[in-house]
Design a protein that fits this description.
It is built from 13 helices and 2 strands. The chain is mostly helical.
Length: 323
């Protein structure tokens, strides 16, 4: 595939994202005429949609960033938070917080704890001769994902809380948010993850080429790995705690972007963040309109697209993708 010049690609993505943001204000169960956009009649709807649009951008960016990190560190194009179980671990922590601690900060803290614990368990299971095997990482992630998904269902089925329906709906993926403070919290975490990844993009380039090459370049591999795995867990956890489990964004967007602009993470980081935001905005627009006035959970939409993509990559990839 012919690669696009990075500056032009980023410019195109930025313009497309801007256009989608404008269009998203006018679509949904309630149609807002363009000439009435400033009318007091639609002011409350526009406020809710603006929060939802911003959250979709941040969530798409965060999940894509997490997938990019995991694919580079593990040198495996199939790696992403959902497949490795990080989303399920974060979701389990968030549900425990919602059921037993009334949500809020407790749910966010437990979501992060669940994500970190998941990463530690998966890495421990995948370790062979003091090195993490990328192939074993995928298998371990699938097993841990199944375990935590079962625990999720156990907690939900064993509770008599009146919030069960809303929790199940949230787990399927829901971008609707009612407080600006929640959006700001997600934005700060995603921004921090983006900045850290950008700062260490050269180290990420070195690791993605192989551990031996990275060692020759003077990279402290274990230190950098710990930093990136914690960043991935934190970003994934904050997104899951607000939006539920939205799978396959972190698988598809970094992979597609890499095919278009190449493997240099100095360009990949910003490009993947933009493509993730655009993709989740498109999925959100589809989820709000395809069965209006009913809404399809956005996690269902991403899964419909992501599962065939995963099968395609699985069949196409026999060796490590990075070259």
């Amino acid at each position: 595939m012919k690669r696009i010049k990075p500056a032009g690609f980023i410019l195109i993505l930025s313009l497309l994202l801007f256009i989608l943001v404008l269009v998203s204000f006018f679509i949904g169960p309630v149609k807002i005429p363009f000439y009435s956009v400033l009318s007091d009649r639609y002011l409350d709807i526009l406020k809710l949609r603006s929060l939802r649009i911003i959250l979709a951008i941040l969530a798409g960016a965060g999940l894509s960033l997490s997938g990019l990190i995991l694919q580079a560190v593990l040198r495996n194009p199939l790696a992403e938070p959902y497949i490795l179980g990080v989303s399920s671990g974060s979701g389990l922590g968030a549900v425990i917080g919602l059921l037993f601690f009334s949500g809020g900060i407790a749910a966010n803290a437990l979501a992060f704890t669940g994500g970190v614990i998941t990463i530690l368990i998966v890495c421990a299971l995948a370790r062979v001769d003091n090195r993490i095997s990328p192939e074993n990482m995928i298998i371990s992630g699938i097993l841990v994902n199944a375990l935590f998904s079962s625990l999720l269902m156990f907690f939900i089925s064993g509770s008599s809380s009146a919030r069960i329906h809303s929790i199940i709906w949230w787990l399927l993926g829901n971008l609707q948010v009612y407080k600006l403070s929640h959006v700001i919290m997600v934005g700060l975490v995603v921004l921090a993850g983006f900045l850290i990844t950008t700062i260490f993009s050269r180290e990420l380039n070195a690791i993605s080429m192989g551990e031996e090459e990275a060692m020759h370049l003077g990279v402290d591999i274990e230190k950098v790995k710990r930093i990136f795995l914690l960043v991935s867990a934190l970003v994934t956890s904050i997104v899951v705690s607000m939006c539920g489990i939205i799978g396959f964004v972190g698988l598809m967007m970094p992979h597609l972007t890499r095919r278009l602009v190449g493997p240099d993470h100095r360009i990949l980081v910003i490009s993947s963040v933009l493509t993730g935001s655009i993709f989740l905005l498109l999925c959100d627009a589809f989820s709000r309109t395809v069965m209006a006035p009913r809404e399809v959970p956005i996690g269902v939409v991403t899964a419909f697209i992501g599962v065939p993509f995963f099968v395609y990559i699985l069949r196409r990839t026999r060796k490590v993708y990075f070259k």
